[in-house]
């Protein structure tokens, strides 16, 4: 059985995956409204609502109703500047988006986490992602979809040297550890948004690649 999301919140619309997902959403005739708050303005579209500013400041001002919310937020410790700043984005801000989306009526929340997310991990990055997942589960969403992609591949506006070096190898690794194109992940997220399945679904990178073909 399938749902047809009509009114959608997209957090992270200017990111690598978010850009691809926004383009897909705006080209879906079944989508009546995309609410995409960003710091810099997006190209105008008749079905796009694009409030601009810092996301945490904008959240209380967002209006609904919503059916579905996508969260494509994510950074690196290097970009954020510290572990605390990284956690503020990849944990705290994600939860704030989820809470606001739920308050506006959304029943399905789809979030990009990471391969290896585990709240008990000794790796800080994986631990924060795992804690974020656990916090979302505790919100008792009617439908929660957690996507765990491996290394994201695609053209970024900023340079991430480590990812550039790892990308050739990531394309060759088998199974869920193989890198995934951001456009493939965006297609997979949209397909997952159309599925009606109560409770929590965790989707690993190999399944995301299959869904996004």
TrEMBL record:
Domain NAD(P)-binding: from-to ranges: 12-153
CDD domains tied to this protein: CC3_like_SDR_a
UniProt-listed InterPro entries: NAD(P)-bd_dom, NAD(P)-bd_dom_sf
TM spans (from-to): none
Name of the protein this chain belongs to: NAD(P)-binding domain-containing protein
Organism: Zestomonas carbonaria
Organism lineage: Bacteria, Pseudomonadati, Pseudomonadota, Gammaproteobacteria, Pseudomonadales
């Amino acid at each position: 059985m399938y749902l047809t999301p009509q009114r959608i919140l997209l957090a992270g619309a200017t990111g690598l995956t978010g850009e691809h997902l926004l383009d897909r959403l705006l080209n879906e005739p079944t989508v009546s409204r995309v609410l995409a708050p960003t710091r810099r303005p997006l190209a105008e579209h008749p079905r796009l609502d694009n409030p601009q500013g810092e996301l945490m400041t904008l959240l209380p001002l967002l209006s609904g109703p919503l059916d579905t919310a996508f969260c494509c937020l994510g950074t690196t410790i290097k970009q954020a500047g510290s572990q605390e700043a990284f956690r503020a984005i990849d944990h705290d801000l994600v939860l704030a988006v989820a809470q606001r989306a739920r308050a506006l009526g959304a029943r399905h929340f789809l979030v990009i986490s990471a391969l290896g997310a585990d709240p008990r991990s000794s790796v800080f990055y994986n631990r924060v992602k795992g804690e974020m997942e656990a916090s979302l589960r505790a919100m008792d969403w009617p439908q929660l979809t957690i996507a765990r992609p491996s290394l994201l591949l695609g053209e970024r506006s900023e340079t991430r040297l480590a990812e550039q070096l790892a990308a050739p190898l990531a394309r060759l690794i088998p199974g869920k550890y193989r890198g995934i194109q951001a456009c493939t992940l965006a297609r997979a997220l949209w397909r997952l948004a159309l599925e009606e399945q109560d409770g929590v679904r965790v989707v690993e990178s190999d399944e995301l690649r299959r869904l996004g073909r």
